[in-house]
Model the fold of this input.
Amino acid sequence: MSNSSASDANEDGQAKRLYTYLQSPSICAAELDGEICLFNPSTATYLNLNGSASAIWNLIASKTNEEKILAALLDAYDVDEAVCHSEVREFLNEALEKGMVEVHPL
Done:
């Protein structure tokens, strides 16, 4: 796993294409009514995901870059692109900080 954060990986339009995101394999996930709760047993931290964050979690079941995540969310939700981009970054940063997502160079 790289030591980069999602914000490091996304400082400009080109950089975001150089990284992929993937669910950390040790994370326990449970879905209820379309929303997912994540638990990291090694740190005893959890994260409750709303519908759009749950969609991101499902997208990163296999290595996916931020550009593909954004395209999928913009297709699925009626949301401004800048708002979507900001919220994707916020989710990825929080999930990375809690050890729930891995970032990998291409």
Observations:
- The longest helix spans residues 81-97.
- The first strand starts at residue 19 and ends at 23.
- The two ends are 12 Å apart (CA to CA).
